[in-house]
Amino acid sequence: MPVSRSQPAPGEGRPGAGRLLPGLATAALALAAAFLVHWLVPVLPAMTLAVVLGVLAANVPGAGAWTAGRARPGLDFAGKHLMRGGIVLLGLKVSIMDVLGLGWLALVLITAVVVASFGGTYLIARLFRLPPVTSLLVATGFSICGASAIGAVAAVRRIRHTDTVLPVALVTLCGTLAIGVLPLLVHPLQLTAPVFGAWTGASVHDVGQVVATAQTAGTAALGIAVVVKLTRVLLLAPVAALAGTHHRFSARPETGTGADADAGKLPPVVPLFVLGFVAMVGLRSIGWLSEDWLEAGAVLQDVLLGAALFGLGSAVRIRTLLLTGGRALLAALAAWLLIAVLGLAAALLIAG
Question: Is the dihedral of CA 334, 339, 342, 347 positive or negative?
């Protein structure tokens, strides 16, 4: 597994603030750089840049020793806990009214794409002999909302933080690939702007990647892309609840390992941060929050999620990834193609 360290040393499970500071400060500096590059080159999503900078930091001599050493506790904290905060605030982007505005046929089709994408990606990953945990996280990230979904299901299933690194790297790579490839297919496939937008929203993984891809076809494509994508995001809550329910009734605390062994407790069916996500969706939907509050929430969400993605990216060792992740990369590309085909079929029915 392409990580810098698989297990914390005794007594390091809950690092103090002093030990977290170097890693959190490093993540803050990297995130500032990611936002600056995004401001200069808007087509590059800041969240994708955060992962890329993390990978670079982990593999450049000198910086790699820092991210694997003094900065590691803070970076691990960001990858786990700040990720959960970002997932909560992600709910502020989802309005039930906007989702219902798509119509029932569109909602059924989008749900069917998510279900088929999840099942198909999981089967592909298992056919390429990826471990069940990796297959689950890859399927979740590809079918719903990228790294945020991976972090949510990993927390619900009590999957180790280090086991999320490879799935996040794969979903980021394939989402970035979509930014470059999908716009090139508009003319060969003779897609209208609404169809292209619906296709992007139904098949691209991360919200930022959806925006970067759809905006190449104009505002008509961008508007429907965001709503379709956020409909997929809304499915994060029921998927997390199902994963938590399954894990709760299949867990065996007395024989658990890693996080499952913590105090021998069964995992919650729905963690607090998922309930927080649902609460934020409710607040956005009832219209109690002003545009200023929604904008502030969006900025904070980007900060938390960006720091988390940098932390996860900083655990990726490219040499190890090349040696052990070849099958995973092929599985991810096959799943990316499957989801692109499913998303295009749904888009033609939704907006064709």
Answer: negative
The tens place of each residue's pLDDT in the chain, 352 residues long, gives 444 444 444 344 455 678 999 999 999 999 999 999 999 998 888 888 998 899 899 888 888 889 988 999 999 899 888 988 988 998 898 888 888 888 999 999 999 999 999 999 999 999 999 999 999 999 999 999 888 889 889 888 888 877 888 898 898 889 888 888 999 999 999 999 999 999 999 999 888 889 889 988 888 898 999 999 999 998 988 888 888 777 776 655 433 444 444 444 555 666 788 889 889 999 999 988 899 999 999 999 999 989 998 988 888 787 777 766 688 999 999 999 999 999 999 999 998 6
- Say which DSSP state 268 is in: P
Residue 181, both tokens: 């490839």
Burial class (CB in 10 A: 0-12, 13-18, 19+), 104: exposed
CA-to-CA separations, 4 to 76, 254, 295, 307, in angstroms, rounded = 11, 29, 36, 18
CB contact burial 251-262 (16+ within 10 A = b; e otherwise): beeeebeebbee
Q: Shortest CA distance to 244 belongs to which of 266, 217, 211, 214?
A: 266
Q: Are 46 and 302 in contact (CB under 8 A)?
A: yes
| Burial class for 249, CB neighbours closer than 10 Å (0-12, 13-18, 19+) | exposed
Alpha carbons 163 and 130: distance in angstroms, whole number: 12
Instruction: Please tell me whether residue 130 adopts helix, strand or coil conformation.
Output: coil
Which residues have a Cβ under 8 Å from the Cβ of 304 and sit 6 or more positions away? 82, 83, 85, 86, 89
Helices (H) and strands (E) in the chain, counts: 19, 0
Neighbouring CB atoms inside 10 A of 195's CB total 22
Confidence (pTM):
0.80
